[in-house]
Amino acid sequence: MPVCALNDAGVQIMKLIRRLRDELKVNTTCGASNFSFGLPNRHGLNAAFLSMAIQEGLTSAIMNPLHEPELAAVKGADIIMGKDANCANWIKKFREPAPEGEAGAAGGRREGRRRRRSV
Length: 119
What we know:
Number of strands: 2
Strand order of the largest sheet: 1-2
Number of domains: 1
Low-confidence stretches: none
Radius of gyration: 20 Å
Number of helices: 5
């Protein structure tokens, strides 16, 4: 049910997702845009919904993975929930490329220096 049609839809869906996880031990899938239907700035609301639903136990979502706000929310929730070791997926997705000349043609290696090997 869209949250604009039923004021406590958000509270109810979070309770349901948690019950499905805790009591029945099942995976859950939700359509993120169903929740925000009829409202402006749906991407912002979907991002908030997804990150909170992941915390409650949502295991998958029907969403457009090209929408940056939702993608960032899901990847951020993965970090908070301990599912992205050393933030590797976050860094891979959002790291800004090195400015020209810093990485250089050496592929990021520093000229004239060797990497020490740990024993």
